[in-house]
Give the backbone structure.
Amino acid sequence: MTIRMRRAVLWLGVVLLASAGCGNDTATLTKDPPDIDELSPLTVGFGDTLTITGSGFNAEAAANRIVLSSGRFDDPASRRVVVPFAGSRTELRGVVPDGAFTGNARIEDTEPLSGLPLAVPQPQLPSNAMPLGVRLSTGEVGKAFFSGTGYEFSAVAGPSGADYLVVLFSDAAPPAASWTYTYHIAAVGSGVLMAGETAAPDRGYAAAGEAPSRNTDAAPAPLIPDGPRKRELDRRIDEQLRELLGRPGGSSRGPRTAPRPSVAAGTPAATAQFKVLRDVSASLVDPASYVIVTADLKFEGAHTLLYVDVNTPAADLTQAEAEALGLAFDDGIYDANRLAFGNESDINGDGKVAVLMSPVVNGLTDPGSASTRGFIAGYFLPNDLLPALVPAGATNAMEIFYSIVPDPAGQWGNVFPKDKVLPIIEGVLAHEFFHMIIFNYRVLIYGRGVSGDYIEDLWLDEGLAHIAEDVNGYDGSNVARANLFLADPGNVTLIYGGDDLEERGASFLFLRLLGDRYGDAIFRSLVQTKRIGTANVAAASGAVFKELFADWVAALYLSGRGITDDPRFNYTSLDILADFRSPYAAPGSVSPAGIDGFVKAMAPEYILYAVPASGAIDFSIGGDPTGRFNAVVIRLR
């Protein structure tokens, strides 16, 4: 790969005037920055030795840094730092690291100046920057974090041709959730490639049977939990919880008073009454938004009380089926979630988690919409763990979450056959129990029950809840949501949404790769911290978030194909090729006119280009000035 870029402004020197000693004595400390004359070779590959000649280098090779950047040198993700293995004041040699891409190289002298007062910061001494091209071999991934409006590089092919996948993404923080940015790619071919020719026919990269068109209106598969009504409920819960707790800055309320339990500690009633939300659009702190439900205790375990609304027909949920659900939670989900994420609270002192199954929950989904728009399969309500902050009529003052009941006849508005919905309910138990656990840490422990300062961002909170389904073996809904994302990845933000079906699918796939790379213990670290969102992920992984994002978008396409065995780009817990569709990749138009498109903030747009034998393509990427674009370039063959 080669690049045409402007030479950076030459640094002439650094002069510092600082106090040295007592009285009016001053010392002028000067140190000229290094200067580069030549790079050899001008185009390199990963693992190649780069030789830099010039002047003013530190005589000790290890005191210099060779810094490669595809964009801004002040962007931590864009910097590839190399410690020279040999050198002198006029020559340095270092090995090109993987992930580097076409851009610039410069030298930075890291040796501190002596004689400076402690209060005076050390000066930065970078050299001039010189253009450096990077070529990729099959399976290699170049990361162009230029975070701007323009970038150029060339892709070349040998005697057998080559395929390059370009993945664009914007790391701009949008003024509104999921903001869309426009881009333009001009790709001019040389060699035998004719202007206007598009990508070569499918060579097995795309999943069999996929339509070669952007799917912007894909409908959910039948019986996928969540959807518009669940999204509305989740957002209302999040918004009203933050308002209740006074975020930012926390609430001025004093310590919580004693809870008002619905089920007395140690004495679970055979029949009990519960307040159950009956209207998604209503205020969650208004007792009028709730209906009183009478329910029978169907299962009591070491950790679980499972109640079923008395209005549920016995044939729709038998005693044996209720017991099986209770046992699945008590004997599996409970321990698996606690091991993966941490412990729940116990505000009423009974040592149990209650599950209430009620047709009232079924009624929260619009009649007849479950198979086309998703549905509310269950929920956890923070009110139940904040009894001192809400009216008594809007809380059950206990650890409890809620689920639908099977409804084969559609009596409550949607048809929910037993064979399909019972496994979904088990996944819901794992999902909602996660929300209870993270609430314990972020609000009750770190926020002391009165502050919302540590509530997790919605995308990460929901993504981890889907990981809870995964660690308990309930993957059907995760696959369905992920496939909605993969059908049109450039139209699905990872971090600026969080509650659309496809956004949940994206966050699940991102976090699942994170677990494969760093071990599942990282999920516990993401829960038990005061950090939030991308800063949380970066701290838990020790990596720059933008770098993790780039590795993830590469893995979505490379995993399992045998193109690379790099663990950063391969899932170990998921069989992507067998269970998921390929991310949709648009055919790249090779012509001066190029292509125009759009991509949401922090969403990956995949574009596939074919370079014929002994040919080349010169790329020029431009974007919305506010879009802060970046590219991941992958050589597929």
Notes: The radius of gyration is 29 Å.
